[in-house]
Amino acid sequence: MENLQLTEKLNKPSILDLEKEDLNKIVAESGEKPYRAEQLWRSIYKECNLDFSEITTLSKNFRNFLSTKFRIGTLEKKIHINSIDSSTTKLLFGLNDGELIESVLMRYTSDYGKKGRKTACISTQAGCALGCTFCATGQQGFRRNLTSGEIIEQVLQLQKIALKEDLLEVEQGKRKKGEIQGITNIVYMGMGEPLANYKNTIKSVKNVIDNSGINIGSRHITISTVGLVPQIKKLSKEKLQINLAISLHAPDNKTRSETMPVNKRFPIEELIDVCHYYVEQTNRRIFFEYILLEDQNDSLSNAEKLGKLLNGLHCHVNLIPVNPTTNGVYGRTDDNANRLFQGVLKRFGIPSTIRVEKGIDINAGCGQLRERVLSTN
Ligand code: SAH
Ligand code: SF4
After folding, report:
1. Among 2, 18, 142, which residue's Cα sits nearest to residue 73?
2. How many angstroms separate the Cα of 128 from the Cα of each of 19, 132, 143?
3. Maximum distance among all Cα pairs of the chain, rounded to whole angstroms
4. Whose CA is closest to 208, among 63, 12, 41?
């Protein structure tokens, strides 16, 4: 009997997969007043209630009605670990079909005003089909696309943690009540390729920017892509003021194809062309991600080629020291060489940042926690 109840619960659709208008229909069907739909939306997305029983502003009858038809979330927290310096929290979730995904919360105290920035790094797929050689997720292969609800729930789970911390700081007198902010930024840089799961990714973005819900400004949201040219074109028409990051990781086709098989499908010239198009359409600069892989793409002549390639494009380059993965073969470029590489880009007038690393001690790089759990089981 207990098992039957459990199966029934797991088979119910998640309300997080629905859009705001769908809630109006549900409320009408239940016989409740129309304003209840907005109330339900706020209590899920603003107050982060992930169980109908927690939503005490709604009548018991309505809550019962909702819970016979839906559940709020579907993610099961399997692992919750913090880095030694407490800046990074990594969660491993089980999905309803047993797949595993990772989400990370990164806290930056030194910027974003005096209250710090909190960035949620979320996954869009279980696994990834694109097979980049330096990436733990890429080495695991593709499992499936996440639903928009599964993408959004990661934000809500991390938001719960972030809000709890803010509230604690209020109690301790370290933060004013008006300064409760929770998550300030979202990066689609966890497991998977967001633009290969285009529809659900965009649906999730539209949800998180809704100002009566999670309410994160689109300028604080970044989608990172391996460089799927047709989808980048499509994205340029969405009229979303989000940031686009392109995983470039090499300045020429030969070097790029060695680590990123996708380059054979969409070679660098096509990718850079669509980037120019994107900037024209959106008036937004593009962020290029460039992992420095020792003796692979980190020489000064690579930097020169990169400078020439990006010359005249409204962009910013993030230089990223590679995270070790268990079957990774790439060494880390030393700090001095990183700075020399950056110096060359500067000569070409290309702004860049060497990214501050977070959570190395807890394998917070893309796909690394899942990999470790599976390899130790
Ligand atoms: N599929 C998308 C988004 C997820 S990967 C993409 O490729 O952009 C997010 C970022 O992590 C990408 O820039 C990716 O190249 C980078 N990444 C993957 N493996 C890494 C590693 N071992 N060290 C550092 N960055 C890594
Ligand atoms: Fe997939 Fe991105 Fe990893 Fe490449 S870097 S394998 S695209 S998740």
Report:
1. 18
2. 26, 9, 7
3. 70
4. 41
* DSSP code at position 334: P
**Ligand 2 center from residue 225 Cα (angstroms):** 8
Q: How far is CA 19 from CA 9, 96, 129, 179, in A?
A: 21, 21, 28, 29
Q: Exactly one of 121, 135, 275, 366 is catalytic; name it.
A: 366
Phi, then psi, of 317 in degrees rounded to 5: -105, 130
* Predicted pLDDT at 376: 41
Residue 365 clears pLDDT 70, i.e. is over it: no
Q: Which residues contact 22 (CB under 8 A, 6 or more apart)?
A: none
Closest CA to 62 of 28, 32, 105: 32
Residue in this structure with the two tokens 């409204």, named with its chain if needed: 314
The yes-or-no answer on residue 102 being catalytic is yes
Q: Tell me: the pLDDT tens digits for 7-55? A: 555 679 999 999 999 999 999 999 999 999 999 999 999 999 999 999 9
Q: How far is the CA of 130 from the centre of ligand 2 (A)?
A: 6
- % helix / strand / coil in the chain, to the nearest 5? 45, 20, 35
Q: pLDDT for 177-199, tens place per residue?
A: 999 999 999 999 999 999 999 99
How much is the CA Rg of the chain, to the nearest whole Å?
A: 22
Q: Establish how many alpha carbons lie within 13 A of residue 369's alpha carbon, considering only the half-sphere containing its beta carbon.
A: 27
pTM for this prediction? 0.94
| Residue (of 71, 13, 16, 74) closest to 41 by Cα position | 16
pLDDT value for 375 = 46
Catalytic residue among 32, 102, 150, 153: 102
Distances (CA, A) of 315 to 182, 214, 289, 319, 345: 29, 28, 11, 13, 12
* 59: CB partners within 8 A, 6+ apart: 32
- Residue owning tokens 């998977």: 192
